[in-house]
């Protein structure tokens, strides 16, 4: 088993805050919210009517209709983010390139092609089985986002998919880095996506009473760590990192944004939706990531920070458990206050934020932080971005079923 160093050489994203990394990062630094009243579906009969939709997403600008009609919106979002990341990294392969067999894909998602699933079930119930799409099954399955990127970009190396709820894309990045570290690939297109703005998904999460009902104030609805938080705000989007073996990247003169330093995961083993009180699973994942990185602490934490009552207190407690008194000196922010919660895509988006924080020395704010919660007493970088050099950053991702993941990145 090798232990090769892994770096980040390309970035791509699509979200409610923009269609490119540059646009996204500008809005993050400015404290802009991407949350609006949902326009793509009828939500008039639902308790929650707000979300983080990708505005003006026109897949026809990226691929022909004969290709896009075979893909769920989830697949399309991941494909577009992967395109930007590969172009940013300066990587391309043809079918005869031996390097193509050393480049792979790892995608993470919570629910994959839920839009297609909902559409096809409706067709089945109203028009019968003969009216179903021949592409229905392939559009639904979660691994197809990675499959389509592999097919279209000639990536013939390891190709995998993880489905661990809201921890999925963090798992995908961590597992992709491990593939490179052990020598099974030199390049991995790693990240995640989600397209959950559908009637079934929005209504289902609303019925679980997990989401904000602050419908009259969409941009103020996601308020992590604030005393008046009332639930998360669902969002769609994708983010992709190009992970690369360090010497391979240096040899081809690649721009290196950051080094991947640590990966930790642990299970709560407690409840299907609630975190274990005290955050034992979360703190175990963070500790494991720091141990993997051979660090005692970090300069910044991008929190899971969902804006739910249970998560924000538990995560705060877990951070203090791991860092002790030093926790009060570490800036912690939740960019879900601006992007909303991309479910399985969240970890990838928030990894991207950590990398850009390291690159630019700007820490993203937690917006809508107006009323401190005495049980959440860390430095949440309230409302305005902060200029501060950061050498190491951690992102946390926690999912239904008790999945806890932490990733650590550092200066190259």
How does this structure look, described?
This protein has two domains: 7-258, Peroxisomal Thiolase, Chain A, domain 1; 266-410, 3-Layer(aba) Sandwich (Peroxisomal Thiolase, Chain A, domain 1), CATH 3.40.47. It has 13 helices and 14 strands. It has helices at 21-29, 65-68, 73-89, 114-127, 136-140, 144-153, 168-181, 199-207, 246-251, 280-293, 309-323, 336-339, 346-360, and strands at 6-14, 36-37, 50-51, 103-108, 159-162, 187-194, 237-245, 258-267, 300-302, 332-333, 362-363, 386-387, 392-399, 403-410. The strands form three sheets. It has a ten-stranded mixed β-sheet with strand order 5-4-6-7-1-8-14-13-9-10, with helices on both faces. It has a two-stranded antiparallel ribbon with strand order 2-3. Helix 3 (73-89) crosses helix 6 and helix 7 crosses helix 13. The longest helix has 17 residues, at 73-89. The protein is globular.
Topology diagram in text:
Elements: E1 6-14, H1 21-29, E2 36-37, E3 50-51, H2 65-68, H3 73-89, E4 103-108, H4 114-127, H5 136-140, H6 144-153, E5 159-162, H7 168-181, E6 187-194, H8 199-207, E7 237-245, H9 246-251, E8 258-267, H10 280-293, E9 300-302, H11 309-323, E10 332-333, H12 336-339, H13 346-360, E11 362-363, E12 386-387, E13 392-399, E14 403-410
Parallel strand pairs: 4-5, 4-6, 9-10, 9-13
Antiparallel strand pairs: 1-7, 1-8, 2-3, 6-7, 8-14, 11-12, 13-14
Helix pairs in contact: 3-6, 7-13, 10-11
